[in-house]
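Risk register update: the risk that structure generation would not scale has been downgraded. Supporting records follow, first protein first.
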Amino acid sequence: MKDEKYISEKTEESQIESQEDLDINVRLANPLRIFSRDQLVQRAQQFAVTCERPDLADTFVKGALVAAHPGLYENEERLAEEDKEWLRRETTHKWQQPKTMYYLVVCCSLAAAVQGMDQSVINGANLFWPTQFGIPTQTDGESRNEWLQGIVNAMPYFACSLFANWFTDPLNRFLGRRGTIFLTCGIACITCIWSALTDSWWHLLIARAFLGFGIGPKSATVPVYAAECTPASIRGGLVMQWQTWTAFGIMMGYVADLAFYYVPDHGIPGLNWRLMLGSACIPAFLVMGQVYFCPESPRWYMSKKRYADAFQSMQRLRNADILAARDLYLAYEILEAEREVTGIMKRNKAIEMVSIARNRKGMMASGLVMFMQQFCGINVIAYYSSSIFKEAGATEFAAIGASLGWGVCNWLFAFPAIFTIDTFGRRQLLLIGFPLMSLALWFTGASFNIPDGTTARIACVALGTYLHCIAYSPSEGPVPFTYSAESFPLYIRDIGMSWAVSVCWFFNGVLSLTWPPLLRAFTSQGAFYYYAAWNLFGFVAVFFLLPETKGLTLEELDAVFSVSNRKHAAYQFRMIPYYIQRYFLGNKTIEKEPLYPHEKMSMEERMANGTFAPAAAGH
């Protein structure tokens, strides 16, 4: 009886804590809902004074009323017809934004290109620097050389994961978004030139370790900067640009490899590969010259209580004052709610990450998609494609040319994700992408069974890697960063994203480090089969464990991530007959059994309307 009483008390305590966590996240979803209309008007007027714009007090009031109930602005009596027209245009003309907004888009896109070029220029250089520094890739059964080449390639990503990523928060706190982007691009610029001037493998290793400090904080800051500056109507499309233009940067790295391949030494040993590595400084330099012409994030200004600067920044990023006042005031109230939540939390954020089941589920889900972004095998090809094509029988120059073709595919096929990620959903894109990537890698590995020296062998290896890239770019390419940003409650989102990005970069480093010895131990066929098998693992893990996040509010996401892995896996296993009937047998009338509260509510509404028959449920 004593044990039963203890268990009952602990269960009740857990339920109370879970309700508190849910109340916190609901409070952060839209903190304006807790105020009455009169309170909201008064607070908005006071905020206009705080922003040193009392002349726009009425505009701030209008913005606050719209922010509290976004879908009801047509019936808001305080709004003039001109105000309503600006609000309508957010839907009807959502891409008609101020020039400053598009200038910011260009800056963020260039920063993403810096990221991609930093990653890919080593591809062509791998054909030259190991031999020059006395570590040829093939020695009589000696594995040391493969490990040395692997660690040099992997060092920026281990530096990102283990050290650099954790400087993101203090850098942003003290330097702002623009300052962090400027500094990290400066580090990337200097270390690219430094890499080009190295005279030994360990010197190159050190230079690339510091390159990690130019990659890590930038990869976490640029998407946040973009999200904080853009209106909600185009936020998803802009956040997706990070993946698109990173792919563009990867492609430009191959262009640089190809452009400098035939450059003679001119008295400088290895001038060609040195120019390849050094060329990545160019986009970084362009971003440094551009970023301070963009407005700083209004949210960062508010975190420093510089409200007048925040409003001026928001005005540059919106088409009308009512839109600027609405977005700034909502951000202000959310920031105040965050401060309030921080004050009432029983534990610090790091402990909250692992002590609460809902947050642990977010860690697992984001960690899974970030892990599989690497172990789907994409960056093996991104970093070693020239060596892979050379192993298939291509000349060095042709291998770099084939790598460029792969880079073009990687960039072009990232564009469809802008339209599909919110149409098909994150989970469905992954469930389509993983089997296709697995088949492509099996085909690539099998292509090495074709006799060496034949055109068919080279063509089939290239085709397999291209098909793998085409399946990756609109699925496992864009999903992880978007999904990770949705996996955590707002009050721990920063530390949650740091965790997710660190997982991504750590396993990126593992891939770079282990590919040369894996190739020697498993042969080309076995190495590609190995990553093909990981894609099958990814499909199974996503099917049974990963919840969908498309189109859900913060409250609904809390309910989704509160479902245990065991319950989610059992539900998906039970749904297998439903998926077979609907997607393979074409039975469109069959209904899906609900799992989450928002699905059950939808079903109850349909039953009340007489549009749902329980007998059709897919058990």
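Supporting record for the second protein:
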Amino acid sequence: MNKKNIRILTNEVETRFLPAVRRPARYIGGEVNQIKKDLAACALTVGLCFPDTYEIGMSYTGLSVLYELINATPDYAAERVFTPALDAEKVLREEHIPLFSLESRAAIADFDILGFSLTTELCYTNVLTMLDLAGIPLRAADRTADHPIIIGGGQGANIAEPIAPFFDLFVLGDGEKTVPEILSFFRAKKAESLPRAETLTQAAQKFDYVYVPSLYEPNYTDHKYTGLTTKRGQTPFTPSNAPKNGETENKGQSPINLNKRGQTPLSAHPHIENAIIDDFENAPLPQKPIVPHAQAIHERVSIEVMRGCPGSCRFCQASFCKDPVRHRSVDTIVAAAKANYHATGFDTVSLLSLSTADYPHLEELVDRLREYFEPHRVGISVPSLRVQQQLKILPRLVTSVRKSGLTIAVEAANDRMRKIINKHITDADLFAAVEAAYRAGFEKLKLYFMVGFPGETQKDIEEIVHLCKSLARLRRKVEGKTANINAAVSWFVPKAHTPFGYLPQKPREYFHDAKKLILDKKFELKAKYINFKFHDIDASALESAMGRADRRLADVIETAWRNGARFDLWSDSFAPLIWENAFKAHNLDLDTAAQRAFTPEDILPWQHLGGPPREHLQKHYNRAMELANQP
């Protein structure tokens, strides 16, 4: 890592860029609560890169956490960078202006570190756009000491192989733990002026949550992925056979000498662990979030009340990668909510977690928040609700000034299917909760469903409509009126590190038929008060193909990007044909990749990257298959 002169592009941005883009508020910076430092005087400069637009990134709480966490160290500077919209990308290229940060309008290629928050597989092409606009080689192997260290974090780090060639390293697990340690390490190495490769190797040795892809070589036999080989010393291992701490032999393969921490001396860890911050109560929590210039998707005070989920839905990657469950105290949450409100003026406080209904002190927390915020006409939002006994009384508690509607992730339409997916909801609890919501004054209901689970029948799909109708008509019991139901239907995507990650995705034709079944049944039942919204089937297929792929997919991603793939999460820019052709260009098939099934004996492209023990997943899988095969 070299000491760099940082280019400030204020003149170029103000004279040639901002006047030419459609929404300049996305790029001007200078918002309330922004933190701007003298970059030249800082020991370490970090670009916090979110691979989507400003409106999406500014709604991501994790970015706010890292922003305040890094900038709390006086001689560290963290500045934000988002993916420019298509019109802005065109202007940057035509005017030869490198991608810049919002705070200082500094060329991000001159930063020491660029950290990308990887929240979904469909953001990968945006990562390449940002690197290319910055003037940074896409492939880690092509970078020199003059380039920043490119780090990937977030959920995408646990499935890193498809994008491994584009990153110098990945950090797995909780950012509140990893970021301070990683930055301290790189600050020291910057002072030592070590070669780039040596710095990365030392990072892999020092931290068991750091994955440096360049230290490993993927192996293939007859085009099938068969594991990794460590490059330094050429010590082979496959993650499924990696020795446990204290062992010295890899089940018949070349020996791996491990020290007490399970490290491979002079090489890298055979298994990368998720970092866990044990003291969640005192983990950094934003106090002064930035108030966006352009309207963000979510403009609210967002407080993470709990990390991890006790539910363990068998399709949910976050449920299996975020253990253990940890909570913040009511006092800490209320204090943070007050500080955030007075720093921003937002009119809603949102309580975030994978399953907020499982927060053990929810009633007390909501009562405390209402007591303070109702006089200020600030609403309380409790998303991520899982129906259970305590949810029955929740609508009584959440009597904020705005009762827009109640949102519940039902996932499946009957008790049998919910047992298969391990979703702890019964019809009895669901109807009791919705009736309580209607009595509390809620008029609308939003339900989330997923189609394509194992054991699913045509009747199960049609019951989605019947359930929505019954819940809508339930309001007649309370007020004599039918409720409006918004039902969002997504398509099952098998996810790595989950029990259902072994399963194939259903063919696209199955989902098209399911969509027709639902709409035909709605017409038959004359249920005009139910509004169905369906996820893009092609995007779900791509997500399945990418999410469980090995390192060979990097070539597909780069080809798709070079052929124009951008903002694949956005329906108005997603181009399925580009992706299908990119797979074909590398003798692969998108549908075959999406519909691939894995066996318990297969070496999985993600199994060296954190996640729960394979035996735990297999136990869940076997139980689900037993239930799915019952008449």
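Confidence is low (pLDDT under 50) at residues 233-267. On this basis the risk owner (M.S.) recommends closing the item.
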